[in-house]
Specification:
The chain is mostly helical. 60% of the residues lie in helices and 4% in strands. Among the domains are: 1-107, Leucine-rich Repeat Variant (Alpha Horseshoe); 453-550, Leucine-rich Repeat Variant, CATH 1.25.10; 562-750, no CATH class. Helix 29 (412-425) packs parallel to helix 32. It is elongated.
Length: 752
């Protein structure tokens, strides 16, 4: 050992590493010394490496590449205190490097470091062990290991260390650990609150700030807030706010108080001691943006409880929030808007904020700050929901145009809430007309194409609200909005699908839009939806019915039935029954087809004077015949009555083929038909009955069978009115004859 000392005292050559200084150009030599069996060499080598690593991150990387960490890891549990201390110092200082931390995790050093936190260890060891743990606790797996290996208890104990560096490192490590819920519960059980409150009186601002940040995280749990109140923590926090010398801590203090205000009991206790008044008076005079922001966030957190909202309203918090909207800081305006949203749940607050706050909020819609824009429209949504007066205030404040412009915003939340506000405004007819006149339907096309389900749902809902006007429907058609609306029927989100069905139902209330929706495939999708017990809803059923009722040609082709309320007009055509999954062609598409030998398409296009004709008076008698002989117009126009036994000789097909050949078309106007069978005659009967106001249905059967059903009222011999009965009308064999629905003769007429 003497020789080694003597060798170390000699002046080393200029190009040889000096173990006592960091200027050596050969750090590899010192790393090799970490394998020495002599404690003094190990201690001095570690000391030299510490000084070398302290120079900068580049030196840490150099030592990492030389394999120093593997040797240092073994020395963390060395029996010599000095060696152990110096090794911990090197590891602690090197842990600031990310690559070093990665290797330390692989070496699993947490258990060794935690063992260095024992009370009997040197304070320097405490300092650098906690420093290393603080660096490593940023990563989740290390947090888990520190928890599992019992590191929380010694860290909390070291909060009371006389050395401020140990306290700071331990506190920083705890702050990182409690980001995880499991650790928050654990530190609460280990009674962390008293030492944290004690650190609020530290002479070091960085420790005070870290203590408040830690309290802010753990006070998110209600159990912690209860303990905080028991230990008079609220008094400590309010005292900090009242002390102007501690104004650098006010921001963090307000963040902790914001969590505490979530509990009704806590707020009531603060109110009884005059704390709320002190808090609000402090906030009203403060011009520090971070303080104003955290104050608004505290109000937001507190306002989720209805009882707390009442207390805040009594303290006139609305005035403070509205004033914050006038600041020059966007973050403050965002927080104030969010607080206004929360306070809107209180009806009285909603009224105050509506009258005084809406004009300010509308002005902020022109901001380029997307986060602010989203917060503002969210507040406007809550202010106008179920409140017609506030909706009127938005309109009077000229909020419609900027709201429509917001539909082009970057954030989905801003778009969906802007749509919600406009929909709330649409409940009033004059305002709805104003919104429609400013191009709302064009503006909704983009949101309809959104990939966000919330935006899709709101957009479809808005279409349903605004498409009640024919002009709005025409605008939506012209700007290509029906296509993306139909696509939303495919959505896997129930709310989106339901609102899309509702919008299709409203849009399909006129023939032009209904036809376009059908062309885009809405009918096929709705039929598919309604076949599923899980996907169908009342709106999907109503939408299908509405589309069919406004597209009778397609309804009759698909359903084979037209009700008395389905009035046939010019332009109707019967192309036969479309097979399931088959495409229903438009009249224009059918007109372009080559002449075929398939069944002709019957087209309705009557002249005005042809609509006034005589038809049978269909009133039943006991015999089943009409009670009075009347001209049977339909039968006469279609070849007259046919004997049942001669039905097979009634050659209507040849006449139809001749008409098609003459017209060079598969489409035959019904007026051209001189010999018609069941389905021709029943259709003509329905057309005429609809034009003169007789309620009549049209039903398609098999093998060219078709019939009409009417409801008639009978009288008893004493003149009493009986409930209406349904009858089948004979327009083929004995025109004018009526068969009671369900009778054998009625069934025979419907079938061969």
């Amino acid at each position: 050992m003497g020789k080694k000392v003597k060798k170390e005292t000699e002046s080393p050559p200029k190009d040889v590493f000096d173990p006592l200084t960091i200027e050596s150009k050969t750090p590899a030599t010192v790393v090799l010394m970490l394998s020495s069996p002599e404690n003094e060499v190990l201690a001095k080598a570690c000391d030299a490496l510490y000084k070398f690593a302290s120079k900068g991150d580049e030196n840490k990387v150099t030592l990492l590449g030389l394999g120093a960490l593997e040797h240092l890891y073994k020395l963390l549990s060395h029996e010599d205190p000095l060696v152990r201390r110096n090794a911990v110092m090197v590891v602690g200082i090197m842990a600031s490097n990310n690559d070093v931390r990665k290797l330390l995790r692989e070496l699993d050093v947490t258990n060794s470091l935690i063992s260095q936190l024992a009370p009997e260890e040197d304070v320097v060891i405490h300092e650098f062990a906690t420093l290393c743990l603080a660096y490593m606790a940023v990563e989740y797996t290390t947090k888990v290991k520190i928890f599992e290996q019992g590191g929380l208890e010694p860290l909390i104990r070291l909060l009371g260390s006389p050395d401020p560096d140990v306290t700071k490192n331990s506190l920083e490590c705890i702050y990182l650990l409690v980001q995880d819920f499991q650790n928050r519960a654990a530190v609460r059980e280990l009674n962390v609150i008293p030492p944290l409150l004690g650190l609020l009186e530290s002479e070091y601002p960085v420790i005070q700030s870290l203590a408040l940040q830690t309290l802010e995280v753990i006070s998110k749990d209600r159990e912690t807030r209860i303990l905080l109140e028991e230990y008079k923590g609220l008094d400590c926090l309010l005292n900090i706010l009242e002390n102007n010398e501690l104004n650098d801590l006010h921001v963090e203090t307000l963040a902790v108080l914001g969590n505490c205000l979530e509990d009704v009991h806590t707020l009531q206790q603060i109110q009884l001691t005059g704390g709320i008044q002190k808090l609000l008076s402090f906030l009203k005079v403060s011009t520090v943006p971070d303080i104003q922001k955290n104050a608004a966030k505290a109000i937001t957190n507190a306002a989720y409880d209805p009882e707390i909202r009442k207390i805040l309203h009594w303290e006139e918090v609305e005035t403070f929030l509205i004033r914050l909207l006038e600041t020059n800081n966007d973050d403050v305006k965002v927080a104030a808007s969010q607080a206004i949203s929360a306070m809107c749940e209180n009806i009285d607050s909603k009224c105050v904020l509506g009258l005084q706050g809406i004009p300010q909020l509308v002005k902020l819609l022109s901001s380029d700050n997307e986060e602010l824009k989203e917060a503002v429209v969210t507040a406007l949504t809550n202010l106008t929901t179920s409140n017609l007066r506030n909706a009127s205030v938005v309109a009077k404040a000229e909020g419609i145009a900027p709201l429509i412009k917001t539909l082009n915003a970057q954030r989905d939340g801003a778009i969906s809430n802007a749509i919600a506000v406009l929909t709330n405004l649409a409940l009033q007819e004059p305002i709805r007309a104003s919104i429609q006149s400013q191009g709302i339907m064009s503006a909704l096309v983009g949101p309809l194409r959104s990939t966000n389900s919330q935006v899709q749902s709101k957009a479809a809902f808005a279409v349903a609200a605004f498409a009640c006007d024919a002009g709005a429907r025409a605008e939506l058609r012209n700007v290509g909005g029906l296509g993306p609306l139909v696509e939303l029927l495919h959505s896997n989100y129930e709310e989106v699908r339901r609102n899309a069905c509702w919008a299709v139902m409203v849009c399909g209330s006129d023939e032009v839009t209904a036809f376009e929706l059908c062309r885009l495939g809405a009918l096929d999708i709705l039929e598919e939806i309604n076949l599923s017990s899980k996907r169908k809803n009342k709106f999907s059923e109503a939408a299908l019915e509405t589309l069919l009722d406004n597209n009778l040609s397609q309804k009759y082709s698909r359903m084979g039935y037209l009700s008395p309320s389905n009035i046939i007009t010019n332009g109707f055509y019967d192309c036969g029954q479309v097979k399931h999954g088959g495409k229903f062609l438009s009249l224009e598409e059918l007109s372009k087809q080559e002449l075929t030998d398939r069944r002709a398409i019957i087209f309705i296009n009557a002249k005005p004077q042809e609509s006034v004709v005589e038809v049978p008076e269909v009133s039943p008698s006991v015999s089943g015949r009409s009670s009075k002989e009347k001209p049977r117009f339909v039968a006469e126009r279609m070849g007259g009555p046919v004997e049942k036994e001669e039905l097979h000789n009634f050659c209507w097909e040849l006449d139809m083929s001749e008409i098609e050949f003459d017209l060079k078309s598969n489409i035959v106007p019904i007026g051209k038909i001189k010999r018609g069978t069941f389905y021709h005659r029943a259709l003509l009967f329905k057309v005429i009955a609809d034009r003169i106001g007789i309620g009549c249905s049209l039903v398609r059967g098999k093998y060219n069978r078709c019939w009409n059903e009417v409801k008639l009222v009978e009288y008893t011999p004493k003149g009493l009115l009986l409930p209406p009965q349904e009858y089948v009308v004979d327009v083929m064999f004995e025109p004018g004859l009526l068969f009671k629905q369900g009778s054998a003769k009625a069934d025979q007429y419907k079938r061969i």
